[in-house]
Amino acid sequence: MVSSHYIQARYRFWSTIYDSIIDKIFHFDRSKVIRNLDIKKGDKILEVGVGTGLNLRHYPPGCTVYGIDFSNSMLQKARKKKS
After folding, report:
1. CB within 8 Å of 2: residues ≥ 6 apart
2. What is the pLDDT of residue 14?
3. Is the Cβ–Cβ distance between 38 and 18 less than 8 Å?
């Protein structure tokens, strides 16, 4: 079984390059999916596996987004995007 320390180390590495690779491949799908959710002002969203927060910019203003992720290094990047 893979240890949680090993997984954290892998995600810590990936967090440094994740946005530059993944956003280029899946950018168009992110905005379309979030638009189709019909999120309204005042809605509360829980994004499981928020990663580095690539989806955050696509949520409409006035909603509150909560994100959880296994990787602390990914969450740190997401927090920076939100602030």
Report:
1. none
2. 83
3. no
| Host domain of residue 13 | 4-82
Residue 48's alpha-carbon distances to 1, 12, 54, 75, in angstroms, are: 23, 18, 13, 11
Cα 48 to Cα 78: distance, rounded to the nearest angstrom: 12
- Total count of domains within the chain: 1
Per residue in 20-70, pLDDT (tens digit) is 887 777 767 888 899 999 999 999 999 999 999 999 999 999 999 999 999
**For position 12, which CATH number holds?**
3.40.50.150
pTM of the complete model: 0.76
What pLDDT was estimated at residue 37?
A: 95
CA 27 vs CA 3, 6, 33, 44, 51: distances in Å: 31, 28, 10, 23, 14
